[in-house]
C-alpha cells in the first residue's frame, strides 16, 4: 500500500448530531479536512460527486480551493458522472484547478451511480443519441475528454482575432500537461476494468462490485485488479497504472470511537441490486487497531491496490474525521506496508 487518502461523500443535513447542516458547511469543512489530512501525512483528499442531492455536486471550485490551501496532498474525485459533463468545459475547469494545485489532481470519472432524479443528465442538456444507452453517452463524453487532454490544437483560428494567436490550430486553455495520465475510471465489473486499461486510464474500484462469481467481495475485487493490469500490459502503455480501492475502516482507540463504532463493522459482505445489477458490497471494519490489522491483512484487494481511500463520516465534523484518519495512519497503516 503506497498511498492512503480519504473519500468524503459530502453529505449535509439538519439531522441531530450533524456538524454539516448546509452546503456552505460541507464545502468549508471539506477544505479544512484536506488541510488537516495533509498535516497528518495522508496522501489524498477525494470527494464524491452527486447531482440533485444534498452532497457535493460541483467539484472544480472545491478542488481549486483545496489546491490553493495545500501543497503536497493529491486531490481527486470519486467519481464525476460523465453523463452530466460538457467535456470541453470540463477540460478548461480541470486544467485551471490542476494548475492552481500544482499538478496534483487525480480525477475519477465514470458513468455514475443511480441518481436522485430520473435521467438527470437531460436537465443538463445531454441525452443519448438514437440507439445509444446512457452508459454509452458517458463513454462518448469521456472519449472527447481524453482526446482534448492531449493538448493538441483542433479549432480553426479567427483570421481577425481580438488577440494575437499562436500559429496553427488552437487548443483549449489553460492546458495542464500530464493531467491525461491522472484520469481514473470507476469500474464495477471486470469487463469495464479491462476497457479502462485499454483507454489508458487508472482504475478506481469502490466498496461495491458486480457479483460475477459469488466469491467474497475482496477476492472478486482482487481478480478485477489483475484483469485490469493484464489488459494494461497487453495494451502496451508506456507508464505504470494506478489502482485505488475504497474501504470503511475505523480504529477504536477511545470512548468516542466506542460510542460511534463500538458495535463493530459488518462481519460479512452484503448482496443487493443496483441499476438492475446484482452487486456485492464489501464489509466495513471497526475494531481495535491490532485486531483491525489482522482483518485487513486478509483483504486481497488491499494487498493488490496501490491506493486506499478511507470513506469518512463527514457529518461528524472536521476534528473527529481528522482523528479517524490519524488513528489509521498511526496505528494501522504501517503494518499494511504504508511508508
Automatic annotation (TrEMBL):
GO terms for molecular function: monooxygenase activity; oxidoreductase activity, acting on paired donors, with incorporation or reduction of molecular oxygen. Pfam families: Bac_luciferase (PF00296). Residues 18-255 form the Luciferase-like domain. The keyword Oxidoreductase applies. GO terms for cellular component: cytosol. Keywords: Monooxygenase, Oxidoreductase. InterPro entries: Bact_Lucif_Oxidored, Luciferase-like_dom, Luciferase-like_sf. This is Flavin-dependent oxidoreductase, luciferase family (Includes alkanesulfonate monooxygenase SsuD and methylene tetrahydromethanopterin reductase). It comes from Microlunatus soli.
Amino acid at each position: 500500500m503506497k498511498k492512503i487518502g480519504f473519500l468524503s461523500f459530502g453529505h449535509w443535513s439538519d439531522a441531530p448530531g450533524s456538524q454539516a447542516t448546509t452546503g456552505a458547511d460541507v464545502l468549508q469543512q471539506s477544505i479544512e479536512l484536506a488541510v488537516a489530512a495533509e498535516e497528518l501525512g495522508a496522501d489524498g483528499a477525494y470527494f464524491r460527486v452527486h447531482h440533485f442531492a444534498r452532497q457535493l455536486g460541483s467539484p472544480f471550485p472545491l478542488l481549486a480551493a483545496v489546491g490553493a490551501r495545500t501543497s503536497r496532498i493529491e486531490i481527486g474525485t470519486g467519481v464525476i458522472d460523465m453523463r452530466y459533463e460538457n467535456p470541453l468545459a470540463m477540460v478548461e475547469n480541470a486544467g485551471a484547478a490542476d494548475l492552481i494545485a500544482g499538478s496534483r489532481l487525480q480525477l475519477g470519472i465514470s458513468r455514475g451511480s443511480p441518481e436522485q432524479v430520473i435521467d438527470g443528465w437531460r436537465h443538463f442538456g445531454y441525452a443519448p443519441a438514437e440507439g445509444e444507452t446512457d452508459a454509452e453517452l458517458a463513454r462518448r463524453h469521456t472519449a472527447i475528454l481524453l482526446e482534448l487532454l492531449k493538448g493538441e490544437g483542433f479549432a480553426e483560428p479567427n483570421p481577425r482575432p481580438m488577440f494575437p494567436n499562436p500559429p496553427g490550430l488552437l487548443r483549449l486553455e489553460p492546458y495542464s500537461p500530464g493531467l491525461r495520465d491522472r484520469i481514473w475510471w470507476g469500474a464495477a465489473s471486470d469487463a469495464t476494468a479491462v476497457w479502462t486499461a485499454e483507454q489508458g486510464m487508472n482504475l478506481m474500484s469502490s466498496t461495491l462490485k458486480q457479483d460475477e462469481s459469488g466469491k467474497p467481495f475482496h477476492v472478486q475485487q482482487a481478480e478485477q485488479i489483475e484483469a485490469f493490469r493484464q489488459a494494461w500490459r497487453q495494451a502496451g502503455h508506456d507508464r505504470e497504472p494506478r489502482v485505488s480501492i475504497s474501504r470503511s475502516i475505523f480504529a477504536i482507540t477511545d470512548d468516542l470511537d466506542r460510542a460511534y463504532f463500538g458495535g463493530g463493522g459488518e462481519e460479512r459482505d452484503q448482496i443487493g441490486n443496483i441499476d438492475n445489477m446484482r452487486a456485492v458490497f464489501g464489509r466495513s471494519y471497526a475494531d481495535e487497531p491490532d485486531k483491525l490489522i489482522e482483518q485487513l491483512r486478509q483483504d486481497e484487494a488491499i494487498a493488490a491496490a496501490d491506493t486506499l481511500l478511507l470513506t469518512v463520516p463527514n457529518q461528524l465534523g472536521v476534528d473527529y474525521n481528522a482523528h479517524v484518519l490519524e488513528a489509521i495512519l498511526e496505528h494501522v497503516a504501517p503494518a499494511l506496508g504504508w511508508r
